[in-house]
Write a structure and sequence with these properties.
about 140 residues, 5-stranded mixed barrel, globular
Length: about 140
């Protein structure tokens, strides 16, 4: 691992979706393990990783999502939440179940050079939009 990296434990939410930094993303949470995950992050730092699932396998990359709000909680405990993508992290180790929990988690690493690039790109809206458009094209090419 590079000296420009930091690793940490993160709750993970595998899903057949890709969320980009700064993107708003709404989710309907209904599975018991993910209701538990949301309860856990509410008491902690309100963030989790959204892991794209490709061909039935979790990606080695995730986007950190920040829980902005729980919009609706239904009688069965399911909920509608609003999140915002923060930045990408690489998954070093994936656990189908976190210790003493039912939800997935992993050890992830932040690359500070990549994070600095995101910050610079965000400072110039045109650069950021070109970057975002290129990522979307790449996602379509990779299917």
């Amino acid at each position: 691992m590079s000296q420009n990296s930091t690793s940490f434990f993160l709750p993970l939410f595998p899903l057949n979706a890709v969320v980009f930094p700064k993107e708003k993303f709404n989710l309907h949470i209904f599975e018991p393990r993910y209701k538990e995950l949301i309860s856990h992050i509410q008491a902690e730092d309100r963030r989790f990783g959204l892991v794209p699932v490709m061909n039935g396998q979790p990606s080695e990359w995730a986007t950190i999502l920040h829980l902005d709000s729980i919009e609706t909680t239904y009688p069965d405990g399911s909920m509608d939440i609003k999140t915002t993508g923060s930045h990408c992290v690489r998954i070093l180790e994936f656990f189908k179940q976190a210790p003493n929990a039912s939800w997935p988690a992993g050890v992830v690493t932040e690359n500070h050079e990549l994070h600095a690039f995101h910050s610079q790109a965000e400072a110039d809206p045109e650069v950021w939009e070109n970057f975002r458009t290129s990522l979307i094209k790449l996602a379509h090419i990779l299917n």
